[in-house]
Amino acid sequence: MRLFELLLLISNIGLLGLTVLLKKERRRVPIFIASGITLLVLAIHWKVEGLRVQLLFPYVLTILFLAGSIYGCFKKTAFRHIPRFILGLAYTVSAVMLTLTACLMYAFPVFQLPEPTGEHKVGTQIFHLVDKGRDEIFDEKKKGKRELMVQIWYPAKHANGQPAPFIEEGPVLKEEPLSKTLGFPSIVMNYLKYIPSHSYGGAEVSTKSRSYPLIILNHGYKSSRIYHASQAENLASHGYIVASIDHTYSAFATVFPDGRTATMKTDEYLIAEKDYRNMVGKVWTDDIAFVLDQFELINSGQIRTQFKGRIDLDHIGVFGHSFGGAASYDASYDGRITAGIDLDGGLYRYHNRPGTTKPFMFIFSESTFDRFNKVRQHHVYTDEELKTMGATREEIKKETKDAEAEIAHFRYAASRGRGSRILYVKDMEHYNFADVQFLTPILRHIGLTGQIDPSRAASIINAYTLSFFDKHLKNKDGRLLEGPDEKFPEVKFVDSLFDERKK
């Protein structure tokens, strides 16, 4: 919550209190002075913080109080003949609207992204890449080639000017899916343009190291690269080049340099079906392979950038959330990739396929782990449980069969993967793995995020992600991967439950 918008709300509450408590003949001067102070707070808020629709009523009330007090100074008999009932109704409505404003400020906070914990400043740059070897299959009308927007975060030499915004004003904000999901106008989320990131556009790459390992980051289905900015910034601050892909037509909005906006075209209902999921998944995996191809050209100087020779292509990581986690696992079969992480993502293209022997870490939410663990334990759901879940026994049977095939990969990782780990985080749910968790506490109340504090959730994911990549891309100790740590009691290691050697 920002200082001046909080002061504005308090000032309006004070104005209303003075109006109600002071006698008519004694409140003219105090209300005039208080109205002037409130207007000054509004002006500072407007200039320093920016207006937003959540505070519309305090804006209106400030003007009305000032206008009324000025009018009352010139005409002392003003408002004396207004019926008491009308005044009482106006006071009640004002009190209700100010209470509603406080609720809106709580529900839609102007939050701060987590501060990167590394020694480096962070730079960012966006690339538009076109894969001339692939047709775009999700936009059949245009019959073009596959286009991607890729944002990179990297260790920066200097940090000059203002940091880049978390979300720029424009098409992305208009397509932001949370408002549509929760059923309110998109203008409600327009304040996200005020939230700064911790990275600086076009900053010069740091010279503290000759080169930096590359990590490919993949967002979830119907999400966006912007919702993983804090994870990318944290890794970049510790000496990694992080490339986050907007998987076109499976992200809620991808804006190209010429102003075109590609919105969701893949089917969010069919994505649960194996064949369609595998088809979309292959496109995502091919996106990752293509981006790796482009970074080879960037590093060699064939694509001219400041990153020539600065990327350590012998140490490449990949990670992602949800469908992006599945894409990261599928991409780990690529010989160029060293290690990967799946953040609470179910797999695709996993049937009748052996697991990867590369270091791979699965981090689950509590409910995802519970679902897989019940399958592992051959749990038989009661009729009452099925009713609560809103599922039929046939649906559970199908889901169980698919889950068993996924568990086979977890078992393979636990028993044969070199340095692989499987864990879950207590009180975390699916959207605690992305920056969307900071947008509104409403997500917690409807179960999309868990009871854990979002800042705590982010610190856990950032710590374990960093430890894993430090171990496998930089040959550091990776202490957090050794087992339970008293600093993170929420993290539960469950490798032994899936290890075939311990049956």
UniProtKB/TrEMBL annotation:
<dbReference type="GO" id="GO:0003847">
    <property type="term" value="F:1-alkyl-2-acetylglycerophosphocholine esterase activity"/>
</dbReference>
<keyword id="KW-0812">Transmembrane</keyword>
<feature type="transmembrane region" description="Helical">
    <location>
        <begin position="54"/>
        <end position="74"/>
    </location>
</feature>
<dbReference type="Pfam" id="PF03403">
    <property type="entry name" value="PAF-AH_p_II"/>
</dbReference>
<protein>
    <submittedName>
        <fullName>Dienelactone hydrolase</fullName>
    </submittedName>
</protein>
<dbReference type="GO" id="GO:0016042">
    <property type="term" value="P:lipid catabolic process"/>
</dbReference>
<keyword id="KW-0378">Hydrolase</keyword>
<keyword id="KW-0442">Lipid degradation</keyword>
<feature type="transmembrane region" description="Helical">
    <location>
        <begin position="86"/>
        <end position="108"/>
    </location>
</feature>
<dbReference type="InterPro" id="IPR029058">
    <property type="entry name" value="AB_hydrolase_fold"/>
</dbReference>
<feature type="transmembrane region" description="Helical">
    <location>
        <begin position="6"/>
        <end position="22"/>
    </location>
</feature>
<feature type="transmembrane region" description="Helical">
    <location>
        <begin position="29"/>
        <end position="48"/>
    </location>
</feature>
<keyword id="KW-0472">Membrane</keyword>
<keyword id="KW-0443">Lipid metabolism</keyword>
<keyword id="KW-1133">Transmembrane helix</keyword>
